[in-house]
Design brief:
Strand order of the largest sheet: 6-7-8-3-9-10-12-11
Structural class: alpha/beta
Low-confidence stretches: 266-283, 334-344
Order of helices and strands: EEEHEEHEHHHEHEHEEHHHEEH
Number of strands: 12
Shape: globular
Strand content: 15-25%
Length: 344
């Protein structure tokens, strides 16, 4: 019998109220019917360009915002069906690491007080001595000396600050940690250290991670499965190695071509038109009945302009939202012929 996923998102939609001049304009859709699940003890990477809705999804998973539609079930419970008191108690089991390792830490507080802050959600708060010992042990687990507890955030490097943020997220021994662009503000060498730390925490503590990033190289290093988002929709998901080697959505391929160091795919199939028609970034907006990626897609057809593809299972474990997914799969499952014509 297959175990239930630790985190399950179903039909997640979120609209932001729009503004037009001094009045209220049409709502802007940041997430549009997103569904995904994450098994316990795994790392799920969520990728996509800036503005595609990744951070909005993170806030909804953390129950910091309420969705316009859909559910978030954590360990079998619908977070938005819980009372305020029950949700507060539940928060000990899921925590978050933010992008800015300095802005997310209170500069007026010592590291001990910062790391110990989540302990306030526990039903029984630890004594002063117990709190000090738990903070010291947590700092040690993220590679910082326990003497760091008496210092302030400005006395640390960017990588050390992010370790402090991770220690704060882990102090309640959560089952899930949402890492929203947790390494994007760090130098490459420091990124590697933090990524190795997350892998160690998964192995030693069994922590499950939702790792959100626009950096495919970072996701390639640690993720078991990945989801690709475009304009608020999930367009492809599957095992990380399979998606990187054989993308089944043109947008996924576009992202991989921008990361030559990790691209393990062959030369792109081509037609008479350029590989991409437009490099304008994705943006939230009013939902369209057409495929959102159609203006940039080299495989676009009339069907794409009038019918939006829904996320569907192409092969077991691989979901994709593209009318030409079968063609993409066939083209990249055989030796690539660079000069061959590719007609969807």
């Amino acid at each position: 019998m297959t175990a239930a996923p630790l985190l399950e998102i179903r039909g997640m939609t979120h609209d932001y109220a729009g503004r037009a001049g001094f009045g209220r304009g049409p709502a802007l859709r940041a997430l549009d019917n997103v569904s995904l699940s994450i098994d316990a003890g795994t790392i799920f990477g969520l990728v996509g360009e800036s503005g595609c809705g990744k951070s909005t999804l993170a806030r909804l998973v953390m129950a910091l915002d309420r969705p316009s539609a859909g559910t978030v079930r954590f360990d079998g419970e619908d977070l938005f069906a819980l009372s305020a008191a029950a949700l507060k108690r539940k928060r000990r089991a899921f925590q978050m690491v933010f992008q800015d390792p300095f802005g997310s830490l209170d500069p007026r507080q010592t590291v001990e007080r910062i790391v110990a802050e989540p302990l306030h959600v526990l039903e029984t708060r630890p004594s002063r001595d117990e709190q000090r010992e738990r903070v010291a042990a947590m700092l040690d687990s993220v590679g910082l000396h326990r003497d760091a507890a008496t210092l302030y955030p400005h006395q640390f490097s960017g990588g050390q600050r992010q370790r402090i943020a991770i220690a704060r997220a882990l102090i309640t021994e959560p089952r899930l940690v949402v890492a929203d662009e947790a390494v994007s503000a760090l130098d490459l060498s420091v990124q590697a250290q933090v990524l190795n730390l997350l892998l160690d925490l998964r192995e030693t503590r069994g922590v499950t991670f939702l790792f959100i990033s626009h950096n495919l190289g970072a996701v390639d290093c640690i993720a078991d499965r990945i989801g690709v988002m475009y304009r608020g929709r999930l367009v492809e998901s599957g095992p990380a190695h399979a998606v990187f080697e054989h993308p089944h959505h043109p947008y996924t391929r576009l992202l991989l071509e921008a990361e030559p160091d990790i691209a393990r795919i062959g030369p792109p199939p081509h037609r008479s038109q350029p590989q991409t028609r437009s490099l304008s970034p994705p943006a939230v907006g009013v939902p369209s009945p057409a495929c959102a990626f159609a203006p940039r897609c080299p495989l676009v057809t009339d069907r794409c302009r009038i019918e939006r593809p829904e996320l569907r299972t192409l092969v077991p474990g691989r979901d994709v939202a593209c009318h030409h997914a079968e063609t993409m799969r066939a083209a990249f499952s055989r030796p690539t012929q660079p000069d061959a014509e590719f007609v969807p």
